[in-house]
């Protein structure tokens, strides 16, 4: 891994503006999932370093909070610019430790940077309210202030964007942050911290702790100083963190698993639906929480859709994401590969047909797959796949498919294709999901509210709504 700016390869934790090893010297290897070679050994910290980071974030809070939003925005703007200037290195780090193809990694760097830019601007417009008084001698106002010290725990599948989608609004609103990145992808997080340091973000405002998930998570949730926790990851861990946060009554944002339906109605533009399916299913080898998980195709267009999708999937090239011609990188680890293979085998054993792909290749790679004649009795209908497999179900009518699509504990992203305007409204309103892509397979951007309902979590990230989770409202009652 040859970085143009070698300073971006940081292997120590970043606490209170200092780069430091774990107190006990512990380290963990970061492995390239494509080559299975060691990229670096990174400090692996625990509870005591987490306490230090929380204390640093608490100390840094008053000065950071008391600056004007504009002053904070100027520093955040510089952070944004440095991310853009270093985007080639950041993308290479991301591909090397997470496996996504370089073009996708470059896209993620731009996406990640956009949250810093957006929230730096947004924080200047955190207006309050003047409420008509209830008595002649009273004046009532509402102001909005940053909530205080925040914690963030982020996953490996978006090693940069899930950090900036949390740190952007937090820092812009005047909060400070302690971040624990995923064990598999600490290098991108530490590079972001290096750029934050270079941008002049003061010591203690943004701290990064690669280390023991359970110890760090417990220390963050137990701390009364930490007023808010934002987590992206699995539903099981989200529930655990919510339980742990109960004693200190933390404000929570939880962006958890999904089981996205992708519906193709009989009046859809089939070619457009195939293009959308490719984007929404195979991005990051299917490892995103908004990836389509269940394809419901109207009986009358099922065979056409299946054939067209399979012919496009056959063109996808599997390999090391640093090769510019590659579309599908490795899965993150063997556990992920085993889970996808198990879902495939379960479906085939219950009557599904493997139209294309599915073979396990050397290392952590697999051939992207299309499965047909899939039914609700199969494991793949219920569980998040997090892999490059498109299972196609048949349906006959609108009401039936809405019921099927909503028949899941999850409620993050959903997609459908139709050219009938009345149906577009009906179905969009009936889908029990936080996000609905209509005639598109890509919905994520910094200006729109990202988040789910039911077991997919709490709160929204990005957009003008995303900063609300980092604010408290204060009511002022003035007697004159
Ligand atoms: N909603 C989403 O975007 C994502 C969903 N997932 C789903 O979750 C499945 C498993 O993926 P996985 O990466 O294991 O997801 P996890 O939920 O286990 O991990 C996400 C983050 O939480 C941390 N974490 C794990 N356990 C704890 C804990 N007890 N206390 C505090 N932090 C904790 C992890 O740390 P560490 O890495 O150190 O273990 C990581 O930083 C995937 O197959 C997918 O279905 C996964 C990633 C993202
Ligand atoms: O998969 C995830 O962790 C959510 C991020 C995906 C996106 O923002 O599109």
Automatic annotation (TrEMBL):
Per UniProt, the keywords (alphabetical) are: Oxidoreductase
- Active site per database record: 255
Q: What is this protein called?
A: NAD-dependent succinate-semialdehyde dehydrogenase
Keyword Calcium assigned: no
Q: Report the family membership.
A: Belongs to the aldehyde dehydrogenase family.
Please give the Pfam families that the UniProt record associates with this protein: Aldedh
Q: From which source organism is this entry?
A: Shewanella avicenniae
Q: Which PROSITE patterns match?
A: ALDEHYDE_DEHYDR_CYS, ALDEHYDE_DEHYDR_GLU
Where's the Aldehyde dehydrogenase domain?
A: 19-475
Keyword hit for Oxidoreductase: yes
